[in-house]
Amino acid sequence: MRNLIALEQQEGIALMQWAAYHPIAKDHLIHIPNEAKRSWSEGRKKKQEGVKSGVSDYFLAYPSNNKHGLWLEMKRRSKEAKLTENQTIWLARMGKAGYAAKVVYGWEEARDAILTYLEAMEDNYRQLLEKPYEDINKWKPPPRF
Fold first, then answer.
1. Where are the domains of the chain?
2. What's the whole-model pTM score?
3. How far apart are CA 63 and CA 87, in angstroms?
4. 10-residue mean pLDDT series, the chain (145 residues)
C-alpha cells in the first residue's frame, strides 16, 4: 500500500488548529492566501491590489530575538515539494529585512519552527529579568528645554 502524503492545504489546516491553542500563535499567526489559481484578468487585478508572487504562506507577526516576525513557507512532506525561484527570493529578502524566514515541510515542522522562534524570545526575556540593574542609581532625567 502507498504512503499517502497530506496536501499542503491539509497541513495548513492542522497548523492553524494547533495555533488556536497556543497563547501567542492564536492571535499572531496568519495565512497569506497567495496560492490560488486565477484567470489572467483576475491575476492582473490581484497584482494591482498588491498580491506578489513568492510571498510565504504564513507569517507570525510577533517579534522575538531581535527579529520582527517569522515568515514560513510551507511545503508538503514530499520529495517533489520544491521552492519556486520567487519563494526563494522572498525568503532571502525577508531575512535581510530583519525577519526570521524558513521553509517547513509539514505542519509539525512549522509548529517546531514557531516554538523555536518564540523560545529564543523567552530566553532573552528571562535573561533581562535575571540581570541586575546596577546602573539604576546613575540614571538622571533628561534636561528640560
1. 8-34+47-131
2. 0.77
3. 22
4. 75 93 94 76 75 91 93 88 93 96 95 91 57 52 55
Instruction: Sort residue 66 into left (φ over 0), alpha (ψ -120 to 50) or beta.
Output: left
Where is 107: in which H helix or E strand?
helix 107-130
10 Å Cβ neighbour count for 46?
14
Query: Rounded CA gap, 71 and 127, in Å?
Result: 25
- Domain boundaries 8-34+47-131, CATH class: alpha beta
Looking at residue 104, its pLDDT comes to: 96
DSSP type of residue 77: S
SS3 71: strand
122, 67 contact by CB (below 8 A): no
Three-class DSSP category at 28: helix
Beta-carbon count within 10 A of 113 CB = 19
Q: Report, in angstroms and rounded to the nearest whole number, the Rg of the chain calculated over CA atoms.
A: 20
Q: 26 CB contacts (<8 Å, ≥6 apart)? A: 19, 20
56 and 69 in contact (C-beta within 8 Å)?
Answer: no
